Amino acid sequence: MAAKRAADFIPLAHPGLGITGVEVDIQACAPEDASGHPMSDGEVLSVTSSSRSAPAAAMTTEELITSAAHPHGSIVITATVSCHGRTGVEMEAMTAVMGAALTVYDMCKAVDKGMVVGEARVVRKTGGKSGGWEWGVKVEDGNGEG
To answer: Where is this region: Disordered (predicted)?
Structure first.
């Protein structure tokens, strides 16, 4: 629903796009210790400092999931939007992801006041006037940047 309402939230977003499909996937990730190993039930984590690789450096959803320690668990939300026409739907996909994240936050806030809605980004775009784009592909190699 959020993808179809993106133009209501974002100035200059194209209203009335011919969106033909929106798929939102939410993946729950088990709690992990600072080394990235899944924790068993009842195991307690004590962390004074940890080094985490930046999620922005990850190229795939799987790499994003494993790119940082999540001592309390996490979710990864992926949205795929398609449409007829030559207008990109990146903002509609981002709105779908953030709408889903805010929905999860709203449902869980009574249980955990310390939740964080983290980074969101476009990882791949195909079609449209500007052509395709993929996270991590250098501009000089083709049509992306990283």
So the answer is: 32-53
